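Fill in residues.
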């Protein structure tokens, strides 16, 4: 019995990912950081209206996404009529300061 467990049931060696020593590739469908294509954005504010956490804010000529509020639901990307927002695979978003979690984009007014 013990020999069976040793040979077949218990795996030997590394069975987990070696991240961060080896880059981790997110699986298909992973929803990482939302990113804005500034050239496509028309400032119609649909994303701001559908965001459930108020992570998206518009100011004149500027759009910001607060990744500290974002829950990575992808609703902004799904509902943008211009496909100006995509859910990237980027997941390494840590910051030592709260302000470092806010991404700013220059958009049309
Ligand atoms: S992914 Fe969801 S929570 Fe994050 S900015 Fe888009 S709509 Fe808001």
């Amino acid at each position: 019995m013990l020999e069976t467990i040793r040979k077949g049931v218990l795996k030997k060696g590394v069975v987990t990912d070696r991240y961060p020593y080896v880059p981790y590739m997110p699986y298909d469908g992973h929803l990482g950081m939302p990113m804005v294509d500034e050239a496509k954005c028309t400032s119609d504010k649909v994303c701001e209206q559908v965001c459930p956490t108020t992570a998206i804010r518009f100011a004149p000529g500027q759009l910001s996404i607060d990744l500290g509020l974002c829950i990575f639901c992808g609703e902004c990307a799904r509902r943008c009529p211009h496909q100006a927002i995509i859910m990237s695979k980027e997941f390494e978003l840590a910051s030592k300061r709260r302000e470092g979690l806010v991404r700013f984009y220059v958009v049309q007014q």
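Residues 18 and 24 are 8 Å apart (CA to CA).
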